[in-house]
Each structure stands twice: as structure tokens, then as C-alpha cells.
Amino acid sequence: MKVLSPTAILGYGFPETSFAAAMGLSPDVIAVDAGSSDPGPYYLGAGVSFTNRAAVKRDLLIILKAARERGIPVLIGSAGGAGARPHLDWTVDIVREIARQERLTGKLAVIPADVSTSSLLASLSDGDLVALPPGTPATEDDIAASTYVVAQMGEEPLIAALEAGADVIIAGRCYDPAVFAAVPIHRGYDKALALHMGKILECAAIASTPGSGSDCMIGTLDDTGFVLETVNPARVCTVASVAAHTLYEKSDPYRLPGPGGLLDLHETRFEQVDPGRVRVTGSRFVPSDGYFVKLEGARPVGYRTVSIAGARGPDFIAKVDEIIAGVRARVEDNFRDTPKGSWQLIFRIYGRDAVMGVLEPERAAVSHELGIVIEAVADKQDDADTICSFARSTMLHFGYPGRVSTAGNLAFPYSPSDMKAGQVYAFSLYHLLKVADPVSPFPFELSNLEDAS
Could you give phi then psi for residue 42, rounded to 5 degrees? Predict the structure, then answer.
């Protein structure tokens, strides 16, 4: 059977010519992994999508029309980016809008992935909430402070919805391969092969050369393996590109953990069957002792204000560490009556070590210019505004030995120079949750696609 992955994330787009070519190969299912924790905790904590509504609607319109015309299922996982209830409802609203607009019919299953505070506290008490190394054990405060907590469902809740007759499934937070593997597993194909194929399809044509998250990829599964190919003549699948994506975001090249077990790749083989297609065989699934799903939770930690500046004076660049230390000392002295721990001041120096921080091996390299991001995070937005403003003005006029220009040390690309970034979130839960079975925590809601709500 054939599984079509049109795009790496719903809203990232795909060429309509590629999609048409893919549909010409008669896929049995269209699946998209619509989310990720890569953009950080804000989107989960705030309950908003990191993708644009118009872009998501464009992708869904093309996908849903083609799928309903051909009577094949559509599965969307990690809806709205982070997969909590607000993200799920946001995506479902778009789906229903398209269904009304295009007069589409069928059965729609909606599968929330949210986990309640009360059930988490009970799991914590029972010892069923387990830290992921190198993280620390969860606490009651972590749970209580979280605005949203989601669990990564496996393929089993999706299969339950398919068995109930769902034509379109919109799911909350999912294990990335689950939406690609659910229909094949439901139809009796090998679980390990289906999940491994899903692991590669999750990012669509990123697993090709040249890679792109905004182009289509097809996986064809049989009894002993699967074949991956793109439908754009500008891209090809190679052993290197497919094998590399198998290892993508994994700490162990042979053991890829997920809900209920892991993929064992010790016997996996990659074969170039022709210049554009790769066949994969030999993957095995090893069940775990108990069924665990990964939790993601986010909590608010304050408010952020940032100022972006540049510096090109060689005297300033040579003494930038001393200047930052002096500015920091001046800020701390000025706000010594503000409670300790209620604010923090961060300097990110682009052109030196802003990307890698203390891990940067070329920290001593001297650039002819620096980009400086001054960031203040505080319990209140007004405090963040004030601290950022004070730090920015202090650095702008800070005196240091050998200074040549007294008109100002910094160049600002924006006016106003300070920008309120709003509430800041941190991951509060990144743990494993042991569940009694893989389906009951994720009950689905079934309705007609054409229903108003």
C-alpha cells in the first residue's frame, strides 16, 4: 500500500504539480505530521499555532478535496503545531470551513491528547510519571503550573477511529510516525516496517536530495519492506538521504524508542533500487515492559522585552566582555530593590557565540561586526520593559578605555528599539507516562464532516 506525505508540517506548503503527480500514483492514504516541539514551549503554553492559518487552510483544501474525491482517508497528527485542545479546535475549525465551502462529506474523528491535572497528580503519586534522562523527576508544582499538558499518542487511538468509520482524523499530539503507520498497521502490515516508514515520511521530502520540507514523498509498503520516492524530478532518494533521516533526532542509531516499545534497526538494510528510489528492509519492533507515552507540558515564567543592536567599532568589539560585565553591574545596582529572582538580563552576541554559547569552539575569533540581542525577562511586563530599556541605554553610552566615539556605541535597525515579546514559557513536563492501555487516554469524538460543529 502507498502512503503520501505531502509536506513536513501542515502549512509548510507543497508544489501542486508534485501533489498531482503523487495522486497519479494512487495513494491509499494521505497523512501529515502537523506539529513539533522544535519551536519551543511558547506555542504549547500559550495555546496558539506556530503555523499560519491561511497557509494551513491552503494545504488542507488541496488535501481534503483530493482525498474525498477518491475516498481515501486523511490523518493529521499534532494538530495546530503543539497538539493541545486549542490547537486541535483551531485545526478542526479550518477543516469544517473547507467542508462547508467545498461541500465535502464523510466522517470526522477528533482525538484530543490533553492530560488532566488530576490524572497527572494521581500518576505522580502512583509512580507512573517517569523522568526522561537527563531530566529531573516531575513535581506537583510542575503539574499545577502547566497551562497545557499533552501526551504523544501512538497509532492505536488512530486505528480505533478508523475502525469506527472515520474518513478524516484530526489528532492532538502524536508520536510523529503514528499517522503514517496507522492505516497500514490496521490493514495488517508489519508494525515495525510501517513505523519506520512513518519515521522517514514525517518530514516529507527532507529525506531526499536536495531535501525540502515543502515537497511530497511517497512510501510504498509490502510484506517485507518499503520503498521511498519523491514525485518531483528535481529530487531523488538516496541511501544516504534516507538512512540519515532514520537517524534524525535520535540519540541511538539502532534503537528508536516510541510509545509501547522501540524500533530495532540492527538488521535494517537500505538498498538503492534505481537512481531515485530506496528500499528499506529488516526493521523490527520490540515491545517495552509496560506502555509509556511521552508528556509535554509548558508553564509561564514571566514576560520578555528585547532590543536588537549592532556594533562595528573595533575598540568596542575588543572589550565587549568587559562592557557587558559593566552594563550588568550597573543594571543590578540600579534595580537592587527589585526582588532577586524576579528578573534576568541576557546578552546574545551574534558573530561570536550566540548560537552555541559556552560550547562555541571559535569564541576567540574576532568579527568585524557584532549583532547584540539584549533580553530582559521579568515577572511583570513593565519590569521587563524597564530593565531592557535601562540596559540598552547603558550599553549605548557606556564608557570604556580607548573609546573613540562618544555619540553612541550601538546601531539600532528598528525604531522603537525595544520590543515587547509578551509572556514567556518553559517546558515544565518532558516525562514518560505509563498508561494501562494505549487507547483509553485518547477517546475520539466522531461526527459528520459537514456538521456545523
Answer: -55, -45
pLDDT digit string, tens, across residues 79-123: 999 999 999 999 999 999 999 999 999 999 999 999 999 999 999
Buried b / exposed e along 30-66 (16+ C-beta atoms within 10 A): bbbbbbbbeebbbbbbbbbbbbeeeebbbbbbbbbeb
Per-residue pLDDT averaged across 196-212, rounded? Answer: 96
Q: Does an H or E element contain 278, and which?
A: strand 277-281
229 closest CA partner among 440, 453, 18, 15: 18
The H helix count followed by the E strand count for the chain is 13, 20
Let me know: does 228 contact 280? Beta carbons within 8 Å.
yes
74-91 in b/e form (b: 16+ CB < 10 A) is bbbbbbbbbbbbbbbbbb
Using DSSP's 3-state secondary structure scheme, residue 57 falls into helix
| Cα–Cα distance, 427 to 41 (Å, whole number) | 5
Q: Does the pLDDT at position 452 exceed 80?
A: no
pTM above the 0.90 mark? Answer: yes
